[in-house]
Amino acid sequence: MKKNIIAIFIVLASVVSCNLDKYPYSEVAADEYVKDAKTVNNLVIGAYNGLYDVLYNEWAMTELRTDNVRMRVNNSTAQDTKLIEELDQLVAGDANAWIQNYWDKCYMVVNRANSVLASLNVVDDPTLKAQYEGEARVLRAWMYFNLVRLWGPVFIVKTKTGAEEARHMQRAPSEDVWAFIEEDLTAVTDGKLLPVKMADEDLGRIDLIAAKAMLAKVYMTAYKPGDTKYSAASDLLSEVLAACGNPATGADLVPYADIFDTSKEMNAEIILAVRYRSGKLGIGSPFTTLYAPINNAGNVAVGAPKHYNYPSDNIISAFNANPGDKRKDVCLKESYYNKTTGATVDGSGGRYCNKFIDPAMVSEWDAENDFPIIRLADVMLLKAEALNELGGPTAEALTLLNAVRQRAGIPDYTAEEVGSIYAFRQAVREERRLELAFENQHFFDLLRWGTLVSTINDYLASEPFYGNYNYTVNPIEQWQTMLPIPVSVLNINKTVAQNPGY
Questions:
Q1: CA 424 remoteness from chain centre
Q2: What angle do CA 196, 199, 204 make, to 5 degrees?
Q3: Taking phi first (over 0 means left), then psi (-120 to 50 degrees means alpha), and beta for anything else, what does residue 13 get?
Q4: 3-state DSSP helix/strand/coil percent for the chain, to nearest 5?
Q5: Where in the chain are the domains?
Q6: Is the distance from CB of 110 to CB of 157 less than 8 angstroms?
Q7: Contacts (Cβ under 8 Å, ≥6 apart) of 476
Q8: What gap in Å lies between CA 460 and CA 12, rounded to an integer?
Q9: DSSP helix/strand/coil, 353
Q10: What is the pLDDT of residues 25-82, one digit of tens each?
Q11: Domain 1-194+453-502 falls under CATH 1.25.40.390
């Protein structure tokens, strides 16, 4: 797909994208453009391409609002720094430009997916028609999965919608949004609309395995263990693991560093990823520029990096609690070597998120790194969690948990150490945090576990950084876990309700 997407997107950029980027409606591509399966495929690729804009700010909606990541400096008056500060302390208001941008880009992908679904009648091949429908439905469900977790009630846009209609839309209750997500995903999984696995030339496009994994995540987020759909999540995860070879030990898994190696992309660990390609093609990854240390003089990354997604003392301590954990060095660095001065830069200037740094990047904003959305270890730990929540720690659950630890180079848990539901639950939660650090998963995990407020308040009170502001950083309340509806949306329709507290 990396090769195929380039030429297709260049065409799309000039033909349709200017008509697909409106919120909350879309003046979609002219009917005369959508003639056959090839042009519908172009629309599908255009929907995938919208994910680049979604991911650009997603770290700030997720990782930054957890105990994994914080500001690099405090008391700054720079505009972007103030936006980050608001999100970091969970006090962002409805005029925060980054929140606005993330909202807009999620709906952009929704609208592009809707354009695909509205154009399927021109596709004669039933297999291709099913595939395009499946991809569009999963992309749409994925965006709503993020929207409902971050905002609660949101606008459900199922079809091409005109501007006048959009001005009178109202937010749908959260339960309706969850039902809509399930409707899309079950249509794909039950109807087997997608190939079980994509051909090599289409790696990166959503397949049936990825759809099942996403549906399992939805079920484990929306339902409690006593619900039949929570049990259904466990069954779906078993199907995904079987398709991935049922790994039982760390030796069955791709080495941790290799997962993120730009020369080994789409390896066996990756179930779903957003694919990037460097080379000044307009589809390079921005994360090296966003995350690398500021003023590093080209020793970590070229250009003028932003030094965002700054690892907290708390996450460093969590890694250090497992001496020898191979994941720490992949995830973050506490220093770098300046070849010009011959000195090691450490302290606040040397620490950075390393997971998505491309040392071979030659132009800023143009790195090679793909961004994983669902990984095999993610599924393994979800399965271990589900088994424990449904019936206590089992041998299978312990095997899955320990396989992830074995790859990390840290000791197995014994059955005695995690012999209770509570002890096993805590072990899985700690493992998910370290295994998936900086992959935009931790916020959503804390949210579904119901521990976000307590975790953030403990963190704000214990991280020394927050005591050095020229004002008091206050504990958060439950309402602050939801983002505010952007002010631009409220200006379009004055009757739209804002989230409580804003």
A1: 25
A2: 85
A3: alpha
A4: 55, 5, 40
A5: 1-194+453-502, 287-369
A6: yes
A7: 89, 90, 453, 456, 457, 460
A8: 45
A9: strand
A10: 333 455 668 899 999 999 999 999 999 999 999 999 999 999 999 999 998 888 889 9
A11: yes
